[in-house]
Amino acid sequence: MNWTDHLPALLLAVPLLGAFVTPLVSLGGKMLRNTLLVVTTFVTLVIAFLLWKDVLVSGTAVYVMGEKVFNLTMPSGMKLPVRIILEADAFSAFMALCGAIASFAGALFSLNYMEGFSGMKRYVSLYCLLTVGMLGMTITGDLFNFFVFIEIASIASFGLIAFWRDKAEAVEASFKYTLVSQVASMVLLLAFGALYGKYNALNIAAIGSLLKFGFMEKIVLVFIVASLACKCGAFPMHMWLPDSYAEAPSGVSCLLVAVSQASLYGLVRVCFSLYGVTMGASFIPWVVILLGLASMFFGVTMAVVQHDIKRLMGYHSVSQVGYMLLGFGVGMLVLSDAKGMADYGFAAIQGGVFHMFNYTMYKALLFLAAGSLYYTTGKRDLNDMGGLARKMPYTTFMFVIAAAAIAGLPPFNGFVSKLLIYESSFAVHPSLAAIALISSVLTLASFVKVFQTAFLGPEQNAFLSVREVPSGMLAGMGVLTVVILAVSLFPSITMSYFVEPASKALVDQAGYIGAIMGGGM
Length: 521
Description:
- With about 525 residues, this protein is mainly α.
- It has helices spanning about 5-25, 30-60, 90-115, 120-140, 145-160, 170-200, 205-210, 215-230, 240-245, 250-275, 285-305, 310-335, 340-375, 395-405, 415-430, 430-455, 470-490, 490-505, 510-520, and strands spanning about 60-65, 70-75, 80, 85-90.
- The chain has one domain (about 5-515).
- It contains 19 helices and four strands.
């Protein structure tokens, strides 16, 4: 067996090992602990890239951990499978790579940003654990293990959001996230339990091969869509997101963006690979579309009036999730309708997949840029800032790149993914594209306000001694900036090698089921 066959397991084992050895390594001092964080996240990124490359060449990777005999007889006489199946197709490997990039960038940024704070061994352990949960959600092939990984990510998030526990706002944000997250998780567990009770299986491919779209399955799908839409921050279940992203350390906010996308990954994986695009009704696709429209419009309108820069970006996260939901909803609706619009349906899926990647990159960069402003000025209120472009030229440049990308200005990567969503949604109904376009205009307006207020304008006397942020923070932002520019300059390569294979894998339910049922079942 080649060592590359173990890449799915290594993707989880490396950050998990980092989480558990951090307390021991921290005894060797700050330098050793920081080195562990950077090396762990970098090695995880390399493994994610190798896994994506291997899947692109060799096809879906199925990795079985545990007993390979399907019906293992327990001492009680009960027969059940005792194993964990990891599955990496072009879509899941693409999302794992996306999350690993955000994790590495946030780790680099945290070296200087968190310097001087106590409790850093807990920070590093939880950061690695959050990475494990996020990556596990993207490559598991089992519903219960998806629930386990989403709980691992949630528990780590609770601690990291409240890391500055002396701030009442941070504790409140963590408590709010805990409450909402656990309600959503319990609903998700009930849904998975219902499927297990009827089909005596938890493997996604196994259930997908047996599933009949009856009344119970419809209720379960509604529960799953609602709970995972809450987890990814869709309106009106978004109330936890702006507070959590605003109060968490900026390196954590960067990683939380990827975690929310892992939840969205779970939502579309269930819809396409478990239920299939021919779900027999247009109800769920329209629910997803309406959630997307509401998220993008109300998210951006709430962002425009914000003065706290991190809360403003938190509300923009709600809005950006709406674009992806719109793309996936239109894709489900059109592909299941069979009225000669299959090309538009696949374009919508491509737009949704591409926007997941773009959003993670530029939103993570925006949170790091906001953290840089807070690091140098001690302020988060835009009204207290001004003239920082003269003092922080590198941060200003990278902020402008991210702002142009999120606003969808050509030729940046956000423009390409949004254009795919505009075109496909217009084919369904012009009003869908109109709402998306209005939301983009408001997004541009709000980031023009941020740029004008914080970076231009009169220089504040209190900031005369402000300097550019340290090299570690610039490196973290630089990683994301390079990725954004690369994707923006080479959109055809990105579409051909990343987005199109991932989109094809997502809509190919038969291929997904066949790969797992033939490879491990």
